[in-house]
């Protein structure tokens, strides 16, 4: 069955143009490097150790999270539709001699047709707000996880506070991100994400907020989900 490509060419081009900067911890992707230990620790806190497990990273970009999970002993497949970031991810993994890590240029919907129920853990971080049909991505992620397995999402809430902090503050004032990284209309409320998650056969288990402290220039995990948030969902065991 042919699947309509759920991707925005402008968004793919945006991240492809910055691909060479992906692994610069002081560059445009500095926030991803800063939050990576937090989100990795939270994933293992909720789902348990990743060692020996089959993991899928959807919208992996240059591989920051995918590589970190492979270093924890998981067998990781990272997928993305932007070719240049994938090339950067493959090269970095090769240079660092990271085992158990593979990358593919394939949509999550297509992969769901190929490998339904194949993964213990599926992650989809900072990606839903960049696609035309995020509900389709959620459904595909749910189809790909095994019974009893975990799916992790992270995205941006949609409200006046998130507009001020995530766009005006992060892109124009603090310059944490390049201007135009996000579009407010694509932000997703937690209630909306939950409405996509439950019909896909997943149960929402935990919601976590991710906040930035300008004075310390650090990110923290907590209960404030007004701007950035993460959601853990689980497929019912067979």
Automatic annotation (TrEMBL):
One Pfam family named in its UniProt record: Methyltransf_23
UniProt xrefs under InterPro entries: SAM-dependent_MTases_sf, UbiG_MeTrfase
The GO terms this record gives for MF are: 2-polyprenyl-6-hydroxyphenol methylase activity; 3-demethylubiquinol 3-O-methyltransferase activity; polyprenyldihydroxybenzoate methyltransferase activity
Q: What is this protein called?
A: Ubiquinone biosynthesis O-methyltransferase
Q: Which pathway does it serve?
A: Cofactor biosynthesis; ubiquinone biosynthesis
* Catalytic reaction annotation: a 3-demethylubiquinol + S-adenosyl-L-methionine = a ubiquinol + S-adenosyl-L-homocysteine + H(+); a 3-(all-trans-polyprenyl)benzene-1,2-diol + S-adenosyl-L-methionine = a 2-methoxy-6-(all-trans-polyprenyl)phenol + S-adenosyl-L-homocysteine + H(+)
Q: Which family does it belong to?
A: Belongs to the methyltransferase superfamily. UbiG/COQ3 family.
Q: What is its EC number?
A: 2.1.1.222, 2.1.1.64
> Keyword annotations for this protein?
Methyltransferase, S-adenosyl-L-methionine, Transferase, Ubiquinone, Ubiquinone biosynthesis
Under Gene3D superfamilies, the record lists: Vaccinia Virus protein VP39 (3.40.50.150)
Task: Name the source's superkingdom.
Answer: Bacteria
Q: Which residues bind S-adenosyl-L-methionine?
A: 39, 59, 80, 125
Q: What top-level class of enzyme does the UniProt entry assign? A: transferase
* Record function comment: O-methyltransferase that catalyzes the 2 O-methylation steps in the ubiquinone biosynthetic pathway.
Gene Ontology terms: biological process: methylation
According to its UniProt entry, this protein's organism is Tepidimonas sediminis
* SUPFAM superfamilies, per database record: S-adenosyl-L-methionine-dependent methyltransferases
